[in-house]
Every structure is written in C-alpha cells, then in structure tokens.
Amino acid sequence: EVYRNPYADTAEDAMPEDIKLTAEQNEAFSDLLSKYKSGKGAVSLLFGVTGSGKTSVFTRLIDCVHNDGRGVIIMVPEISLTPQTVSIFKHRYGSCVAVFHSGLTLAERLDEWKRVKAGDACIVVGTRSAVFAPFENLGLIIMDEEQEGTYKSESSPRYHARDIAKYRAAYHGALLVLSSATPSVVSFYNALSGRYGLEVLKHRYGDATLPEVTVVDMNKELPNGNAGIFSTELADAIAENFKNKKQSILLLNRRGYHTYVSCRSCGHVMTCPNCSISLTYHAANNRLMCHYCGFSLPFTDECPECHEKKMHYSGFGTQKAEDELHEILPEAHVLRLDADSTMTRFSYDKKLKRFSDGEYDIIIGTQMVAKGLDFENVTLAGVISADQALYGDDFRSYERAFDLLTQVVGRSGRGKYKGKAIIQTFTPENEIISLAAKQDYASFY
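^ that's the sequence the OP posted. Answer follows.
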C-alpha cells in the first residue's frame, strides 16, 4: 500500500550521529531511563534552561524505547514547531516517523494514522492531537514546552493533552516526560510535591552561555527625540549585528499595521461587532480586521458615527515594525513571520529554511518566533514591547509573560557565539521582566 507522506522530502541519515551527553544530562537521562524501565506509568518533569540540551536527553531516551520495539509520541505546542522536530527525528529514525497535526489534509492524516495502526510508523511527532496516536504498545510520551495553552482544546471534544497523556501513560505502563525551560506553575508544584519526578538541567550545553540581557526604559526615548518603535540601543544593536554578519530575532506579539483606530472628533473606536474588541488595521489590503473571529471591513477615514473624516491610527504591529526596520537598515533582508505571512501551506517551513541558509538577516514576528528556533548564527534577541504580554486580561498573564520573555531571550547565543538580548518596556521596574532577563524561574515560582 502506498501512503501519502507530507514530509517525504525530509532527508534521512543512514548513520545517525552519536549523541554525547554532559554529566548533568547523563544524570537526567539515567533517572528517566530508570523510570521508563519500572513500567509504572510515571510522569517526570525535565526542567532545564534554554539551550541546555533537553532534546538530546529525550532523544537518547527515545533510542532505548525504540530499540525495545515500543511506540513513542512527541508533542509540540504549535504546528509551526513540527518541521524542525520532524527533521531531527526523521534524520535519526527515517520513515518510521509519522506526523499528526491539523495542517495536513484529511487524506494525509488518514494515511499517517494507518501507518501507525499497521506498525509501519513507531514514532509520532505532532501537536495535541498526536496524543491519540493508535499505538498498542506505547512506551514513551514527550510533551515539549508543556506549559503552552495550545495543548488545551477549547472546542468539542474538550480536553487537555497533558491529562490524556497521563491516562495513556498509566494504561500502557509508559513514561510521560514534560519538558520545558519555563514549566507551568501547576507542573512545577506537582514535581516539588513528589507527584512527578523532577530532572533539572541548570547549564547550557557545551561552551554556550546564557545571553547578556539589557532592559531599555522606553519612557526616556521620546524626550531624547526618538518617537520610533525601536529604541536607540536596540536599533544600534541590530545594525552592529548585521555589520558582523550575525542574525537577529525580534519579537512583537501583535500582527497587523496599527492595532487601534479611533475618531479624533467623537472618540468612536472601531470594534468587532462579534467580539467587541478593537479592530486592527492591515496596510497590505487597507482593511480593518478582527484577529479572533476573522471579521473585516474596508478602511475609510470617515467615522461611521459622526461622519467626520478624522480617523486616527494608534498602536503598532509586526507590519509597521517591519516597515520601520527597513527605514533603519534598508540593506538588511528582513523576514516577517506571523499568521498573515504564513497562510499558505508549508510557507513557515520554507521561510525558516531560507533564514537558516542565511538568506535573511533578521526575523521579526509574533510568538511563533519565541520557541523552538535553534540557529547558531543568531546572537541578538529583541523584545520590542514587553508590556503587551504583561498587561493582558488573563489571570495567568504574568506566567505567560515570563514564559514568552524567557523563551525569546533564550533564542540568542545558542551556539559558539556569545549572545545578547534587549527587552524594551515602559515599566522597567516590573519584577517579571527582571526575572525573565535573569532566566530565574525559581524566584518567579
């Protein structure tokens, strides 16, 4: 039988390279291997700083489970993280790797399900739906970036992948490994209280060190004559990085051009009739759009309430930041990664490949650039507006902000080159920012 394989072009290695673990990694691996061999359906938290080599630890563990002839599920929080993960494991294990996520066609999903059911695929990589992979002899479940809210399904059937994974691990006598540099408070509490095992990686792999982090007070920029999105310090750092032929990753967790449109005459704010949130202006098609339900309408400078032509933009998103970046550094090749620029199938994969090949100098994007990216030549990470993450309407906004800031800072300096990171904020005294800058999860908890 011939199966439709969405990742058929991913290269496979005939002789996968041996993974060398540090003493710290080896201790974590040995403890996890012992829990796996106990067959008790254990749950363990693998907690390590960004760049500490958590993937290497659980890859060694997968080797052992794979050699035992048992199935493995590897979950990532977003579809955008699957290409790199699939590439890692297809290089190592070849055609026995299957992929489960909603970005595949129904026919491709059916074929991948059939391959697992028939025993032709023994390792599944995917998003939360991968937890349902039809393994009869499941041995290991890896839940990478376990703190992410995307593991929870808000539509029917409602479930949290972590809960399903715990049930499956108990049923099959498998090991569940929750992996993160910023674990959820719930998981960390369970680990400290003894409900979960706890393995800690305190240092980056090899000679790599954590980046040097600078927090920039944006309140001082306007008095000094800078009304732009980028502080003088961040703009200079980007230019210096470009001059040194190094790459940069910039986070702005708001897509679009302007995030708020109102009338200066009567104060009317353009909001979504379905969601009651402000509409975002997109310059590419001159439309106002709702990022929650998809509602949109053409932009006009006439107010629908008072009919005065005094509509005013405020706020900024990735499109405006990209334009300003071109003004600051016109010779640089800038790649914007957000939901608008990656709408076509596999466009995210292809663009990341081009960045990896050195065709782009700078990535600017939403939270999809904050996790999972591992490029040796990236030596600068910038957070354009930390305040957007800090002051949300979610009671866990501080937890999510710490996670996002810590993760994006951790994209810098992951190889042989020393990295730096710059966080822009109007509230530099905020404790969450200083803890994220130091990657101090223990104090945050």
